[in-house]
Please model this.
Amino acid sequence: MSDPEYPQQQQPRVFDTSFNYMTDTPPGTDPDSGSPNLRADHELLWTKELRPGVVFEPTAPPKRGDGYLIFTDPSEARHWYGSDAITHSYTDRARTRSLANAIASLNEDERSRYLNPPYTIGSAMIWPVRKKDRPTMNQARGFRSLIADRMDLTLECIRRHYAGEPESPLADVINAYADFFALFDGFKEFVEFFHFQDLVTPDYEEVRFYLPFDNFKRSGMPATKDEYVTYREATLEFISARSRRMAAWVMENHPGIEVRHTD
Model:
């Protein structure tokens, strides 16, 4: 049996920052592997010029089994990328009693706001994947407790890589995929390329953390109700701000595409 192909996008092309990718994901898969709209939006957002004459162009192959997105560099080398959700409600990861109790103590309004939110483009990212380099960024971010799927902590590890600061919980993985990070001319370009400006200070020197930062001395997961509420409010604010940046970028660079954005 041949690999299934993604359906073609309907015309005119629409970029909708409120679209929930769980709604177009086939049964038995997750949005990061199965949503055709998410893959198309990744391809749209991340195809752009890095610097004069150098274009990053991750392309969806016709058959899903051939890869999620593939970028062929000027030397004709091929690089594979996968999709990853970069925010987390921890509803299925309450591994500690304190976090489980924190979630259980939420009131009805808080539960409605924080638990099981829609998966929209503001909380989606792509990372490089290679069979020979495991874990991938996606895997390490999720399974290493000092990161706990938090993008702010991930970004701090990336900042340290560009700054030549060798110590971080993701240093080994980032070094394994150093060719990906070398595509970008430093931390500032990486941040701007992927619309992470709202997670850094205006001078790009420091990361704005969701919770007080302790230099990776404890788990990245919130431990109390107050921490959980603070974390979720910060992540929701980040998703909204990043979505606005994405919508503005598409409107500026793809005027023929209909952009839908609501805060």
The first strand starts at residue 14 and ends at 16.
